[in-house]
Amino acid sequence: MGVFITFEGIEGSGKSTQAKRLYEYLTNIGIKAYLTREPGGTSIGKKIREILLSHWEENFPSIAELLLYQADRNIHVNNIIKPLLQQDYIVISDRFYDSTTAYQHYARGIDYSIVDYLNKLATEGIKPHITFLLDLPVQEAFKRLNREKDRLESEGLNFHQKVREGFLKIADMEKDRVIVLDGLKSPDEIFNQILNILKERKIL
What we know:
Phosphorylation of dTMP to form dTDP in both de novo and salvage pathways of dTTP synthesis. Its EC number is 2.7.4.9. The chain has helices spanning about 15-30, 45-55, 60-85, 95-105, 110-125, 140-145, 155-175, 185-200; strands spanning about 5-10, 35, 90-95, 130-135, 180. By secondary structure, it is of the alpha/beta class. The chain has a single domain, classed as Rossmann fold (3-Layer(aba) Sandwich). A five-stranded parallel beta sheet has the order 2-3-1-4-5, sandwiched between helices. The radius of gyration is 16 Å and the shape is globular. The relative contact order is 0.20. The mean pLDDT is about 95.
């Protein structure tokens, strides 16, 4: 069985950069690795991602948003994550169910029991072996978003502050799995920390 590593954080935290860097490092040293993301890790998921991140004139209810994320996740688990783990790959995902808990429960306010039940339903027992949470102040993260903001990025600073606090609460509850990294450090410093932790845990 392979290893499942996830990267989490608010928009602009640098998680995508580190996920890609780890994938490139592993493939360069001859380890079977696969880089994916949520939403959008499959062909169907790309369509769902487009719906989720586009701006719409119609009201986009929080429950509909939650269900679309879970549909993407279940397709992702069955088509990418589970098959590759069975082939002994290291699967690296840019976001997984912690993002749903942070965004849809802590920021949107959907009851935790609903979000948790749907997370478990969609993942079919798949859990990350280790999760790296890149944490930094919301204002600093938003300075890095030098592009047109998507629907979620366009939410106010208060919303993203709730997301950040939600991630930190998850990390506090799951200290063994979730490793908090200082997103204000240089990309090289952060990546070296990631490698050291993976080596300490005998993942590398």
